[in-house]
Amino acid sequence: MKFSFTVLVFSLLVAIITLLENHVVIAFPTNTEILKGLGFVIHNTVSEKAVGAFEIKGTSGIAAMHVAVTELNKIVIIDKVQSNPLKLPDGRRVVSLEYDITDDSKRLLPLNTNTFCSAGSFMGDGTLVNLGGAEKKGSSYAAGYQGLRFFNPCTDKTCEWREDPKGLDAQRWYPTVITLNDGSLFIVGGSNQSTRVNTKIINMPTFEFFPKKAKQATTLQFLIDTLPYNLYPIVHLMPGPVGQNYLFIFANRDSIIWDWKANKVVKKLPTIPGSPRSYPLTGTSVMLPLLPDDNYKPQVLICGGNSKDDVTNPAENSCGRIDLSNFDTAKWEMDDFGGIGRVMPDAVILADGKTLFLNGAGTGIAGYSRKKGDVLIPQAKDAILTSVIYDFRKPLGSRFSKNAKSTIPRYYHSVATLIPDGRVFVSGSSPQENVVDTGEFKTEFRIEYFSPDYVLQTKHPRGTIISVAGVTNVNVNPIPVKYNTNVAVIVEVTGSTVFSAALIHHGFVTHSVHMSQRYVGCLVKNVKLIANGVFTMDVVMPPNHNMIAPGLSWLYVNNHGIPAKTAVHVMVS
Predict the structure, then answer these.
(1) Stretch 482-498: mean pLDDT
(2) What DSSP line would sit under 291-320, residue for residue?
(3) Which of 2-6, 241-245, 301-305, 306-310 has the lowest mean pLDDT?
(4) 321 domain residue, yes or no
(5) Can you give the residue range of the structural domain that contains 113?
(6) Rounded Cα–Cα distance for residues 371 and 273 (Å)
(7) By CB neighbour count within 10 A (0-12 exposed, 13-18 middle, 19+ buried), where does 411 fall?
(8) What is the three-class DSSP state of 9?
């Protein structure tokens, strides 16, 4: 009998290992619990190898609620009006600054409207636009709900914000904005005042454009149907032929393909299984890399969230991925979230096309701590310090790998963005209504840099891009490039070579929403060795403005998947 039981256990173990090796995931908790009850230790297919690293270096000076990369070593940081330690010459608290990653210096950027929970994107001419916001703050800062703020990036430290306090048609708190295929901005959603959960009374279910394309904001029924979890809706520009004007729009658990020019729903997509993914049950999303060898297949990934508005509820441990090549057959393919439930995650597409997930909490929801009597109750806890990497090329069940651990909790109002040297800038965490200096739920000013494995590896030396489109003085000004053309690039690198390239738009980051973030692979042709370790090549730009919106992007050239030491700033038109 003892022998038979041993054989049975061994047979079951072999069967389980076989399933896992073939990426068959046991998806039912009851099965897992039964196996655990029999004494089995269940391992999912997530790798435990930590191959990246976090480094704490520098401070942001103000809470980093919103960030955008504007130049090679410059990041514009925007907070809200609160008791940040830095002050303007006129005595007001600083709301925005330009941060230099090379020396931790900060150039203060005066503002006059409240930018709390605003949105942003770059126009086709390279202008960074921040819009929306919140209520008036004393006599120092006017209401920002209808505000438009313009910043033209510069290298000579003279650029400042310009403001139009009433530039929007509607009051917008927690809106989304993305760059369209014509270089204009699509502005959608939000509420007309700050709130914990959106309601019919304060909902702003409309869209508008900048520059204006209509006399007033227009109703979008989708943002009525998705109440109450529809703030900061997820929006992606759909790739496709010239003449197509489609957007993917997601809120709560639902999504549509929408024609912005015709103001028409093209297709209502299936509801994503699992929890809501929108504030305060905040998840995150990326349009997965668009690659020419896959006909620029459009695939959207959405991860995390929470199942209910409850500060004690565990975060959602699932991701949905949908192939939008055919709207009629599109359906969600579900995966676990690297074995870690997470609310308020950030998703950063890396230089090699993989996606880094980091920040957020294992329990609760987005939002400020709330008072219960004299006690402040955090809305989220159990900080998730472990990062995970998602490789979209791998089969289902083996796409996630656990990576390096941070030592800094990053709760509500945390951010992360790729920077041109291939690392990831990480900052923020401001889960209290005003600046708090101590404790786990304090206002966090420390900056971290996450170095992916391609930065740390030593097998393949990182190259240097020495010329793009005949310009050798790269990253002084953005270099003009045109769609569907061959761009001459010269790269210096030692060792064996397998080149690839991509245009990446880093986007505008706030509240786990990476507005306009984009990765488009570029064909590399006609590679020639012209000197010792020096190669010329033609990098083919994306075919049209639906693949990547016109304006500022970064050209990354990789060798064996390892990016050159810095990307090059380009202006796509």
Answers:
(1) 98
(2) -GGGTT--EEEEEE-BSSS-TTSBBP--EE
(3) 2-6
(4) yes
(5) 61-386
(6) 33
(7) buried
(8) helix
Contacts of 494 (CB under 8 A, 6+ apart): 461, 533
Q: Whole-angstrom Cα distance, residue 563 to residue 557?
A: 6
CATH of residue 277:
2.130.10.80
What CATH number is given to the structural domain containing 544? Answer: 2.60.40.10
Let me know if residue 322 belongs to a domain: yes
C-alpha torsion 196→179→416→64, nearest 10: -60
The CA dihedral of 251, 252, 253, 255, to the nearest 10 degrees, is: -10
Calculate mean pLDDT across residues 447-470: 97
Give the position of tokens 């955090």: 378
Specify the pLDDT at position 43: 36
The CA–CA distances, whole Å, from 293 to 76, 537, 542 equal 35, 18, 12
**Nearest by Cα to 68 from 571, 410, 505, 567:** 505
Q: Exposure string (b/e) for 341-371, b if CB count within 10 Å is 16 or more?
A: bbbbbbbbbbbbbbbbbbbbbbbbbbbbbee
Calculate the alpha carbon distances from 144 to 84, 165, 218 in Å. Answer: 18, 6, 20
Give the tokens for residue 568.
Answer: 């090059």
Q: For residue 160, which of 73, 94, 97, 78 has the smallest C-alpha distance? A: 97
3-state secondary structure 137-196: ECCCEECCCCCEEEECCCCCCCCCCEEECCCCCCCCECCEEEECCCCCEEEECCECCCCC
Higher local confidence (pLDDT), 265 or 47: 265
For the CA atoms of 481, 485, 488, 489, the dihedral, rounded to the nearest 10 degrees, stands at 70
**121, 210 Cβ separation under 8 angstroms:** no
Strand partners, 114: none
In 3D space, the residue among 169, 65, 165, 82 whose CA is nearest the CA of residue 120 turns out to be: 65
476 and 382, same structural domain? no
Summarize pLDDT for 308-346 with one digit per residue, the tens: 999 999 999 999 999 999 999 999 999 999 999 999 999
CA distance 468 to 139: 49
